[in-house]
Specification:
The protein is mainly alpha-helical. 63% of the residues lie in helices and 4% in strands. The chain has a three-stranded antiparallel sheet with strand order 3-5-4. A hairpin with a 2-residue loop joins β4 (230-233) and β5.
């Protein structure tokens, strides 16, 4: 049960096509990706998570009568849109591909995943620092908002001015004030020639910055056009119906959260997750989307992962649920935490589902030890926040066939909450003999015995 207030379902802006028409347009954008996904699903060893191998690229191009560049681009789009799932060198259809012809919602979710990953679809210009690219990506939502509110073509100079303002705000928030005319760097022991060169570079800073912003804006607009979010004219850009709808949805999510009693949009990640802990999955995802929409992707993902590294196992699991809503933009950061034992099982499951695995089959990606560690971590969350009956029922979810086998492997896995979990389970279990065995295991872990 929840006390959230309800309101009528928001209506999209006047002129927005019906969902069936939006889905038709999304299917058109992803037509090549769907063809390649079907080909890959029916072909042994078509490729890996990296781009298609050369021999597979040639086979696909011949079979589908596409150029190698079209095949490579379609393969990337199929992965980003969740149309294929990869198992070693074998690809098989993701759930969205199986539902593609009959489920408009699955199609739109697949296209939105591609839209969110526009910066991965269209490679950034070479020779530009990663920080500058990241700032441009963080500034793009403001550019899209202007396009959406304008409800028509917007000139490139107006978009460039907005991008420059937003980048300057981001730099100011990070206390990164670029040197320019009239500003000098702190005195150093640099040689006179080096100092003169530095001062010359400083005086050209603003001009170079404007040129860089123009280059990055062109890249962003081309990337958004490549995924079907906007069209480019001579000196102006216009959102497509799909792009207009997607931006409206994201703005609406912010409005929904701002009207919620909990005010989760303004909360830290930890407080937001706690506020969503007792919501059912649908309303919880709405809260996650609204909270994410009010922040830059990079900062939101970093905050969620920081919470996941904490001691509260419930928040760890919820943080990865919120990261599922982020989708493709979170993939590099999630993949980077695979080396952290406390996050690895969650990250493996996240990546498996991101790559299209059915959630019911995703557990197969975990080793026996990882599954046991996750069982203990989930039990810790239940012990801290759930009911005793839930902890007893949690026994049934263990991969081990018997309680003695489970206890042996739990003792060996080294989870920091093992003792507390076993003590709580022993106190909750109605079977005296089983409770005694669990207490003995807890004592052995506590004392370091075998």
């Amino acid at each position: 049960m929840t006390t959230r207030r309800t309101r009528p379902a928001p209506r999209p802006p006047e002129g927005t096509p019906p969902r069936a028409e939006l889905a038709r347009q999304a299917r058109a954008v992803l037509a090549d990706a769907v063809r390649i996904a079907h080909w890959a699903a029916g072909t042994p060893g078509p490729g890996t998570a990296a781009p298609l191998a050369a021999h597979a690229l040639e086979r696909a191009a011949t079979a589908l009568e596409l150029s190698p560049a079209q095949v490579r681009a379609g393969w990337d789009r199929a992965r980003l849109a969740g149309l294929v799932e990869l198992h070693g060198d074998t690809a098989r259809p993701g759930w969205r591909l199986r539902a593609w012809d009959r489920d408009d919602s699955a199609v739109l979710r697949g296209w939105v995943a591609l839209f969110d990953a526009w910066s991965l679809v269209h490679a950034a210009p070479e020779g530009i620092e990663a920080g500058a690219v990241a700032e441009a990506v963080e500034a793009v939502p403001q550019v899209l908002s202007l396009l959406q509110l304008s409800a028509g073509p917007v000139t490139v100079p107006a978009l460039l001015d907005l991008l420059g303002q937003r980048v300057a705000e981001l730099q100011e928030e990070r206390c990164e004030v670029p040197l320019g005319p009239g500003r000098t760097a702190p005195a150093t022991s640099a040689a006179p020639a080096e100092t003169a060169a530095g001062q010359a570079a400083a005086t050209t800073g603003p001009a170079r910055s404007a040129d860089l912003n123009a280059l990055l804006l062109d890249w962003a607009l081309e990337g958004l056009a490549a995924v079907g979010a906007l069209t480019l004219g001579k000196g102006h850009a216009t959102l497509t119906p799909l792009g207009n709808w997607a931006v409206w949805v994201k703005l609406e999510q912010i409005c929904v959260a701002a009207q919620s009693p909990a005010g989760n949009i303004e909360q830290s990640a930890a407080d937001m997750l706690l506020g969503c802990a007792r919501l059912t999955p649908g309303p919880a995802r709405d809260e996650y989307r609204a909270w994410l929409a009010a922040r830059t992707v990079g900062s939101a993902v970093a905050e969620l992962l920081a919470v996941a590294r904490g001691e509260d196992a419930l928040l760890r699991g919820l943080a990865f649920e919120a990261l599922r809503v982020v989708g493709a933009p979170a993939e590099p950061e999630v993949r980077a935490v695979l080396a952290e034992p406390s996050l690895r099982p969650y990250a493996l499951l996240w990546l498996a589902e991101y790559e299209g695995n059915d959630p019911d089959d995703a557990q197969d990606v975990l080793s026996r030890e990882e599954a046991t560690w996750l069982w203990v971590d989930t039990a810790a969350a239940v012990a801290d926040h759930g009911e005793t009956g839930l902890l007893v029922r949690h026994l049934d979810s263990a991969v081990q066939g018997t309680v003695p086998a489970l206890l042996d492997e739990v003792r060996a896995v080294g989870h920091p909450r093992t003792v507390q979990v076993l003590v709580a389970l022993a106190a909750a279990h109605p079977d005296p003999a089983l409770a005694k065995a669990v207490r003995r295991a807890a004592f052995q872990v506590h004392t370091g015995g075998a």
